[in-house]
Specification:
Blueprint: H1 9-22, H2 35-42, H3 46-58, E1 62-65, E2 69-72, H4 76-102, H5 107-122
Helix pairs in contact: 1-3, 1-4, 2-3
Length: 127
């Protein structure tokens, strides 16, 4: 995994975990890789993974079953979407709005490109 120097590694690992949940690679009630397994896989310190897991526990995305490991909660997908939506609206969207304003990109062009993106990336099976 390539890490971005502008963002804390534990937050990038949280995004990685959340991506797996949203893409359904890891499903509700699945056991997650252990702290050590994920640390080895991502080539990071186990304490960094533990910090990620602690944060995800606080957001009720994962739960620790003592002695067994970390598991996705029954509400993991809903909680991931809520968490990621908050991050997007507070961090990503203001920069996006700034760029479309400075570059004078109109809403019709954005809508057209959004529709193309969805069609190309998510409607492939509907054709």
């Amino acid at each position: 995994m390539e890490f971005n120097a502008n963002k804390a590694i534990y937050l990038q690992i949280a995004e990685y975990v959340c991506d797996h949940i949203l893409m359904e690679t890891w499903k509700t009630n699945d056991k997650l890789p252990s702290v050590r397994e994920l640390a080895v896989q991502l080539e990071v310190n186990p304490n960094t993974v533990m910090r990620t897991y602690d944060m995800l526990q606080q957001k009720e995305i994962i739960a620790n079953k003592r002695g067994i490991g970390f598991f996705l909660t029954g509400d993991s997908v809903r909680n991931v979407k809520s968490y990621r939506k908050t991050v997007f609206l507070e961090e990503d969207l203001p920069l996006f709005f700034r760029n479309i304003y400075l570059l004078e990109i109109g809403l019709p062009e954005l809508e057209q490109r959004y529709r193309q993106f969805v069609e190309q990336n998510f409607n492939q099976n509907e054709s």
